Amino acid sequence: MADTDTPELQLLDALYRLNKLVVADARVHVAAAAHLDLVDFLVLRTVKMGVDSPGDLVSDLGLNPSVLSRALSKLADSGLVTREIDLADSRRSRIRLTDHGVQTTDDIGARITPVLGRRLRLLSPDRIRLVLESLDVLCGDTVD
């Protein structure tokens, strides 16, 4: 019988449960702040953080290209992003947030922050820092 209490499986279980809780909280606030879904918000937020090409967004967010294409079309139709031809390579496009896109992203973030803050405040400030630093390490490219 396999050991179900290994740290690796505990990590998997904990991340799955935490993800489920955080995503459920976030979905409610994204929908309440704008007529968007969570993927749309994550695309906006990722563009705001500097990832601005469709290929990089697919890689960074782990989305299927067709899902990203639909999200970008919805965001462009809503006036939240623009698609611009890359001046260095006309085969590529760059995604930019409009002023409305920046404001919407900020508004959604402001709605989600208190909910996530309540969850984080279950930990001491030192533990929060340690968890966030640990997640940065675990999300790094050095893990095969």
What does it look like?
By secondary structure, this protein is mainly α. It is built from six helices and two strands, in the order H-H-H-H-E-E-H-H. The chain has a two-stranded antiparallel sheet with strand order 1-2. The two termini are 26 Å apart.
Write the layout of secondary structure elements.
Layout: H1 7-33, H2 38-48, H3 54-61, H4 65-77, E1 81-85, E2 93-97, H5 99-120, H6 125-138
Antiparallel strand pairs: 1-2
How much is the radius of gyration in Å? 18 Å
- Uncertain runs are none
Shape: globular
Please provide the count of β strands.
2
Report mean pLDDT, rounded to a whole number: 91
- In this structure, how is the largest beta sheet organized? 2 strands, antiparallel
Strand order of the main beta sheet, please? 1-2
Estimate the strand proportion: 5-15%
- How many H/I helices? 6
The helicity comes to: 55-70%
Main structural class: mainly alpha
Termini separation (Å)?
Answer: 26 Å
Order of helical and strand elements: HHHHEEHH
Short structural summary:
By secondary structure, this protein is mainly alpha-helical. It has helices spanning about 5-35, 40-50, 55-60, 65-75, 100-120, 125-140, and strands at about 80-85, 95. Helix content is about 65%, strand content about 5%.
Labels describing this entry:
144 residues; mainly alpha; two-stranded antiparallel sheet; 6 helices; 2 strands; 7% strand; globular
